[in-house]
Amino acid sequence: MTKTSKFTPWDEDTGDTTTTANNTSYILSKKPLGDGSYSVVFECKNTSTGRHYAAKKYNKRLMYGFENMLKNEFKVLNRISLSHSHLLSLIDYFETEESFYLVTDLARGGDLWNKIADEGKLNEQTTRTITKQLVESVDFLHKHQILHHDIKAENVFFQSKHQDSILLGDFGLAKILQPQEKFHEISGTLSYMAPEMLDRKIGYDFPVDVWAIGVCVYFMLCGYMPFDCDDDDETKDAIRNCKYLFEPSEYWVDISSEAKDFILACLRVDPQKRFTPSQLLQHSFLKTNLAKPTITISSPLKRSFSNLSALQRDQIKNILQKAGGLSAPALSHSSSINERLERGRFDSLNKDATLHGAICPSPECVSIFSSPANSTSVSRDGSAINMFEESLKWDGSQKKALPLNTLRHEASFVL
């Protein structure tokens, strides 16, 4: 391996990046999952473990002048990864001569926007289930001084097509705020912007995420946006003056007063009077007949803490005991052991399976690949053991996988 001095989003202290002559540890699908202004997302497979993830590919030429945006996304993702069950996690990262890659969780269920478009609108129970998860994830971010800054239906992903369990993603505009710090840049998606975001002089912080949650809930319940006028000027005026209605009445006749009041609590012009995520979690709308997200997993793949091996359980217990129990910050707002272990993080990466910023040859691209026999719809890099060890590390340090002596299944490819 050699060292090269150049810009990378993940090595800003020294500017040195590892260069490897070995093949990249990932194979990419030729068909993209989605794209943005600067990036394209592909499904990928780790060739060492057979695990499937999402690879967000940034074109270096398009990113010229926007390097800080990518640095910021990496910084936020690296800080929150494996800390909350409804936040997208960073698995790995590397670069080639032409591109940067961020490897993250793979959500096979599409996004909330497409779900609403397909179904017209969502029933109140489904909306409640999705909203509670969204508010919990935002509450976690805010308690760790992170402003998401781009909450919208397109950035709420489903772990699979057979469940309503979400992952909040796309942290390209996210910001780690210092106490009392305000953000002044006008950026984001206009239809989801809070009134204070339209005035550079005022500045804004965490309450803008709550406003965006309110817009999402309105959208889920009726199938159209509360602030979506003929042109941008009209939309801005509607936002500044909170001009929206629960109309046409036939769309809202079966919607409860609790749901409408929840939206009102989010869409308050004065950010100081807007509910916080913690207050929203106590709102009657989220307390009424809340069902757990539906999860459909075939019986050969379904696992839980109860059927882990004795060795795995002992190792988990040892890690937790060394860390002083479950009171560490990264786990303070996370879900239970069973819920976390059912999310598909059972096969550890071996010591050579992660690249951690290495400069590599371009990944091979294939037309079709099949999931390994032991892969669930959403993939994480760590084993059950490594997951807890890394979750307890809030300092964003590099991941060190602890491999288990478990059977591995290779995926077959059709070129």
Automatic annotation (TrEMBL):
Q: Which SUPFAM superfamilies match?
A: Protein kinase-like (PK-like)
Q: Which Gene3D superfamilies match?
A: Phosphorylase Kinase, domain 1, Transferase(Phosphotransferase) domain 1
Q: Does the keyword Transferase apply?
A: yes
Binding-site residues for ATP, renumbered to this chain: K57
Entry keyword Kinase: yes
The secretion signal range is none
Enzyme's top EC category: transferase
Q: Which UniProt keywords apply?
A: ATP-binding, Kinase, Nucleotide-binding, Serine/threonine-protein kinase, Transferase
Q: What is its EC number?
A: 2.7.11.17
Which GO molecular function terms does the record list? ATP binding; calcium/calmodulin-dependent protein kinase activity
Query: Which InterPro entries does the entry mention?
Result: Kinase-like_dom_sf, Prot_kinase_dom, Protein_kinase_ATP_BS, Ser/Thr_kinase_AS
- The organism's superkingdom is given as Eukaryota
Protein kinase domain spans which residues? Answer: 27-286
Q: Which GO terms describe its biological process?
A: filamentous growth
To which protein family does this belong? Belongs to the protein kinase superfamily.
Protein name as catalogued: Calcium/calmodulin-dependent protein kinase II, putative
Give the source species. Candida dubliniensis (strain CD36 / ATCC MYA-646 / CBS 7987 / NCPF 3949 / NRRL Y-17841)
Q: Give the organism's phylogenetic lineage.
A: Eukaryota, Fungi, Dikarya, Ascomycota, Saccharomycotina
